[in-house]
Amino acid sequence: MAELFGQSLSFLLVVAGTALCVMEALAPGAHLIVLGVALLAAGLIGLFVPAAATPFVLAGLVLGVGLVSLYLYRNYELYQGTGRGQTRDSDDLRGSRGYVVEEVTPREGRVKLESGGFDSSYAARSISGTISEGTNVVVVDPGGGNVVTVEAVDGADDIDRELDRDADGA
Fold first, then answer.
1. Interval 125-138: pLDDT, tens
2. Where are the membrane-spanning stretches (predicted)?
3. I need a surface site. Which of 96, 116, 124, 147 has the fewest CB within 10 A?
């Protein structure tokens, strides 16, 4: 069994891996997690399987576990999640769709937006006229705060409107 500073190499790997994982928890950003997991796993294997506690085997374990954890981190989003909880700025709301929960006028109203964040209910103003409760809307101006400017939509897109025009004209 290899030793360094009077301690087994496996124990030192566990300590270093644990320290890196704790540092990652204190300052997240996935800068240290892959290496921390690799060192921790290799150290634990070296502690529990004494035959694997040689420097070359431990180095191979660090490399192998590191590659596996890097692959999992990059491809399965185990660490960074799906992004659903990410903070968004007001510009991200432009084009968002939702529906009116309280009649919207040029001066007041309330809408609920799809994918509008933790609280998807926003104060709203219309461009012109009144939009009745339950009407589908789209955000045309996010406004930079909790008040968005919306416009009623009929659920049809440009293709549907063009087809309707062709049908009326034919």
1. 998 788 889 888 88
2. 31-49, 56-73
3. 147
